[in-house]
Amino acid sequence: MAEPARKIHTLDDLLHTPEGVKAELVDGVLYTEPRPSGGHAETSSGLAVFLKGPLQFGVGGPGGWIILQEQTVNFRGKYLVPDLSGWRVERLPEIPDEPVIEVIPDWVCEILSPSSASRDKVEKFNYYLENRVPWYWIVDPANRFIDVFRLEGERYVIEPPQLDGDKIRARPFDAIEIDLGMLWSRLRKK
To answer: Considering the entire predicted model, what is its pTM?
Structure first.
């Protein structure tokens, strides 16, 4: 017996998903997942705080970036929602008042959670590579580490951050220090 035809989803379906649901559209398939857990949300918002002040607003840092959380981005027909995205202001001087940004980010960051880890480390890794995103961070709050990937030619290479105790400097944001001890401080240890 033949399987029923699967519905091909559109950008309109993506834009009309219910509040509180994270949705992405890849090759006509709508991927949905509930909003993240407390640990995931804390890591994402904490990292955004560390980055936005010095990188977006120039407070104690160089400025020159736009940093957004959970923004839908068009990766050549694949509509993905990285946990954090960053654009150099030369490439995205203003934040568009649209539901989808059409400019490929200069940096993306995914925060791992049990429900998304394999997709973040394999599928999204490959989507970002195909779209030549220069920098990709994978942050694992459960195991308390950050993997930094730099685009080199046609592949990503892992680049170790500079460590100083709990503090790191990680490219492309090595002009600022990120205090991992503080970032992880409220997370329950496994």
So the answer is: 0.90
Number of domains present in the structure of the chain: 1
The residue type at 124: K
- Contact yes or no for 33/115 (Cβ under 8 A): yes
Which two tokens mark 160?
Answer: 């170790």
CATH number, domain of 153, equals 3.90.1570.10
Average pLDDT over every residue of 145-172? 90
Q: Phi/psi of residue 151, each to 5°? A: -70, 125
In contact, 100 and 11? CB cutoff 8 Å: yes
For residue 172, whether the previous peptide bond is cis, meaning omega lies within 30 degrees of 0, is yes
Is residue 117 helix, strand or coil?
helix
Task: Decide: helix, strand or coil at residue 38.
Answer: helix
Q: Which two tokens stand for residue 36?
A: 């993240």
d(CA 176, CA 60): 8
Domain that includes residue 89, residue range: 36-184
Distance of alpha carbon 34 from alpha carbon 54, whole angstroms: 31
169 strand-pairing partners: 162
- Give the neighbor-by-neighbor strand order of the sheet with 72-75: 29-34, 21-26, 78-80, 72-75, 100-101
What does the block give as tokens for 143?
């195991």
137 in Cβ contact with 109 (< 8 Å): yes
> In the predicted model, what is the mean pLDDT of residues 84-100?
96
DSSP 96: -
